[in-house]
């Protein structure tokens, strides 16, 4: 993910590789719940919806489709986190596999958090923008308050 773009591989096909990786990740994340059929059914349906919307958005990107795709992926990532929680906290001994699943859960939280930020940026393009004039007004206000 970090090395290949730096050496020029995938520069023009980066979004394609990203879509393939996300699709594989969502399917494999859902497959973890194979032993719990109701949980697996919900997870796989949500993952397939996220994959379909992701590929449609890649072919015909619009703001609405991107927002829907990001929301579907956030919901699927949340479902995969539920699956991982079920795996980690089910009864039985704690073995290294549960520790690996807990680490994967934390990585899933970061994945979901990044989708939430992307959704916020899509809903409000100025959500993460600091305008220089706002900083100047704040610094002038601080200076006059400290001079008093």
Short synopsis of the structure:
With 148 residues, the protein is mostly helical. It has six helices and no strands.
Write the layout of secondary structure elements.
Layout: H1 3-6, H2 14-31, H3 37-59, H4 63-89, H5 96-123, H6 132-147
Helix pairs in contact: 2-3, 3-4, 4-5
Explain what this protein looks like in three dimensions:
- Helix 3 (37-59) runs antiparallel to helix 4 and helix 4 (63-89) runs antiparallel to helix 5 (96-123).
- This protein is globular.
- Helices cover 78% and strands 0% of the residues.
- It has helices at 3-6, 14-31, 37-59, 63-89, 96-123, 132-147.
- The protein has 148 residues and is mainly α.
- It starts with a helix and ends with a helix.
- The helicity comes to over 70%
How many strand units? 0
Tell me the series of helices and strands, N- to C-terminal. HHHHHH
How far apart lie the N and C ends? 53 Å
> Mean pLDDT across all residues, rounded?
80
> Approximately what portion of the residues adopt beta-strand conformation?
under 5%
List keywords for this structure.
mainly alpha, 6 helices, 148 residues
């Amino acid at each position: 993910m970090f090395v290949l773009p730096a050496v020029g591989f995938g520069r023009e096909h980066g979004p394609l590789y990203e879509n393939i990786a996300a699709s594989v990740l969502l399917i494999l994340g859902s497959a973890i719940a194979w032993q719990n059929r109701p949980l697996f059914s919900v997870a796989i349906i949500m993952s397939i919806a996220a994959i379909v919307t992701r590929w449609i958005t890649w072919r015909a990107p619009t703001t609405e489709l991107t927002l829907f795709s990001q929301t579907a992926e956030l919901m699927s990532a949340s479902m995969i986190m539920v699956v991982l929680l079920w795996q980690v906290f089910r009864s039985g001994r704690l073995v290294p596999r549960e520790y690996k699943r807990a680490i994967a859960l934390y990585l899933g939280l970061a994945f979901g958090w990044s989708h939430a930020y992307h959704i916020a940026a899509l809903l409000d393009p100025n959500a993460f923008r600091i305008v220089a004039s706002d900083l100047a007004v704040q610094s002038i206000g601080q200076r006059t308050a400290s001079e008093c």
